[in-house]
Amino acid sequence: MSPHADLSLLDALRLGLVIIDARGRIALWNPATEEILGRPAAEAVGRPLTDFLAPDGERRVPVAIRALLRHGAWRGVLPMRDREDAVVDVECRATLLRDPEGTPFFLANLVETSRLREVEQDLGALDTVFATSPIGIAVFDTDLRVARINDALASLYGRTPEEVVGSTVMDLLPGQAASEIYELQQEVLATGRPAVDVVALTADGRGAHSLSFGRLTDRHGNHLGVSCVTLDITERREALDKIEQSRQRLSMLNDVGLALGDRLDVHSVAEALAGVLVPRFTDYAAVVLLRAVAVGGDLPAMDRIAGSAMIQAGIASEERTTGVERMLQREAVVRFEKGSVFDRVLTTGRPWVLDPRHESHVLTFPEDPRVTAMLDLGVHSLMLVPLRARGTLLGILVASRAGDRAPFSRDDLDLAKEIAGRASITLDNARLYARERDGALILQRSLLPRHIKEPPGVQIGHRYVPATSGTEAGGDWFDVIPLAGGHAAFAIGDVMGHGLSAAATMGRLRSAIVTLAHLDMPPGELLRRVNQAGEDINEGRDEPLMATGVYVRYDPGTRECVIAKAGHVPPILLTRDETTGDWRARPVELPEGTPLGLAAGGFEEQSVAVPEGAILVLYTDGLIERRGEDITDGIDRLCAELAAVEGPMPSLDALCDRVVGALTPGNDADDVALLAVRLGGVPDDSTSSWMFPSHRSEVARVRTRVRRTLLAWGLSGLVDTALLLVSELFTNALRYADGPVGVRLVRGEQDLLVEVSDPLPDPPRVRHPALDDEGGRGLQLVSRTARRWGTRQGPIGKTVWFELPLRG
């Protein structure tokens, strides 16, 4: 038992008792009075009461005595002084009494005014709350019977407070709910832990009440019972249900947006749309598109849509059973009967909801296996929503519910229309993008080289891999350009951006490179000229088109590459260690250069000597770039993959396949162009070169060396022509140059190359002499006799060359 079990409200109020004799002196001063004023009885008894009154209290004494003598009682407030001489207002109730001898005395009850006001306010507030609160309130005693209940709570159960008092919840609520709440009340009374917002449904199940219980105790901890606060939350639950439904619908729309995302493939969009609807919104879903939307092509006119072929481009269901496969077949071609519900949706553009169990005759033709499968699966609600975007009909969204699931409601139809509207925009974007991308790919592939001709001493492997669906055609390209004199040029580049504009720009830049390459320009000068062409392309554009590239000029006779680049990733040189047989790959260090299309200075070039059989790998950044990674990491990864070849190098095509497969498994980010070139040389017995002093007497020695070489090669049929042309070029070099003159012969598979080099940088010019001029006909003779001829500049001086066919 609590140590305060015998205490009551009187103890809390501290009721003081004072007896005053007929002389006005204190005869009794009880302990409660001692607590109120802080003065012990020994100090007060025998003294006049006025000794303990404040001045205001002394003035009230005569009034109180007259009231006592006249009426026998008095009630009022007396200001008294405590031991600290502070004023304490006490509520006083005085009564006139007489002893057996008839001697009068006064009995006064004292209560602190502040304590009494608190109790009065608490009781007043409690009464007001019970009487006026719209919230149901009840107080249960320790036996869990209703001790007090307000009208608001009693009315929730259709009763008056008088009818409810004395009852338990077992008498008021239905069986199972009453037992649960009664046990909860017992737990609250025993433990003191409150129970908040306990939901109890009404007997008819249509309403709901929120119950909160707390244990009642007095100031000393004695258990008085259990309080109950009850709210009718029927409307709140309905509002919350509507809010939850709205939240779920918004969540569904958000999930649809996330699922569709930035997809740019029609089939991918259709699959994502069907997948996000099952099972949250429907049991089975199908996205049926016009054939022209699914596979490309022109859309039929509205008056010709009826009966058009359609494709189930996207389907979804929780299970894949035989019945489901009969009803939903991915990529199945379907045609809807004229006059059917599907036909009406297509022609009118209005959605439709029906019960196929009772309206199957309006779906398609009788005994349609898809309808039979639908009925076998227990589908009881079917929704058809047209997919339209920008005034264009694309197809139908078909959703169906089966089993115990509720049929589609009006709210469900509104949500489906919103989903279809958003999905239609994505589908139409994918359709339009596919057309543009196909056009860009066709243009791009038409601009890329179809057949790669291998120059002498060179083997080629190449791959071009367009990015997968979701990105536009890019501007990557590569080229292998056979040059005069057995030389070869290799180029690779990447136009920044995607689409038709990038593909067209790629074609223009590639054409410029091929044209300038045949002029036998040094790589640095060639890139400078191409850059000027890029500036012309950019003229008048808001956003400049830029491109990166690498240009390589290879001389198989000297096994030397001259390379220049314009902001491109560096080439990789793959060589084999003659001792260990291991392959080693390293990037070729080159001056950086700015991208093409920007105003810039010249482009530096660098000569790189390569060993026999080395492989030069040119590529675009789509092969190595990864999001969040430095470009050097990708270059290192490419080098490691190239050097991982064991034993003899396989074919270059196989090497390209291996590299592309290892480094771009998904290839969903960018196009990839890859060119691998095995750099071989001209056989030693197929080339001869000499240096001669700049003197006329050397002409005869030049003719002798050339004649002996050609006879040794079995080319006697070319001796006379070759000697004539070499003599002309050598004599021309002697006339204008001041320094040694070089002569070089190269025997190819189909041509004989003859080169004459001198230190004069100015190229020779073809003259048109008059009939009586003695000279000026040397280059005319060369141009008319040789199959091809030309000039090129070297580090020092120039080289004039011509080719003679070995046969014919």
Q: Report Rg.
A: 53 Å
The biggest beta sheet reads: 6 strands, antiparallel
Strand order of the largest sheet: 13-12-11-16-15-14
> What portion of residues belong to β-strands?
25-35%
Pfam family, one: GAF
Organism: Streptomyces bohaiensis
Protein name: SpoIIE family protein phosphatase
InterPro entries: Bact_Sigma-Reg, GAF, GAF-like_dom_sf, HATPase_C_sf, HATPase_dom, PAS, PAS-like_dom_sf, PAS_4
List the helices and strands and how they pair.
Elements: H1 9-13, E1 16-20, E2 26-29, H2 31-37, H3 41-44, H4 55-71, E3 73-81, E4 87-98, E5 104-112, H5 113-132, E6 136-140, E7 146-149, H6 151-156, H7 161-164, H8 169-172, H9 175-191, E8 195-201, E9 208-217, E10 223-232, H10 234-260, H11 266-277, E11 284-290, H12 291-295, E12 310-317, H13 322-327, E13 333-334, H14 341-348, E14 352-354, H15 356-359, H16 369-376, E15 379-389, E16 392-402, H17 410-447, E17 458-465, E18 475-482, E19 488-495, H18 500-517, H19 523-538, E20 547-555, E21 560-566, E22 572-576, E23 583-587, E24 605-609, E25 614-619, H20 631-643, H21 652-663, E26 672-679, E27 687-692, H22 698-712, H23 719-736, E28 741-747, E29 751-758, H24 778-785, E30 788-793, E31 798-805
Antiparallel strand pairs: 1-2, 1-5, 3-4, 4-5, 6-7, 6-10, 8-9, 9-10, 11-12, 11-16, 12-13, 14-15, 15-16, 17-26, 18-19, 19-20, 20-21, 21-24, 22-23, 22-25, 25-26, 27-28, 28-29, 29-31, 30-31
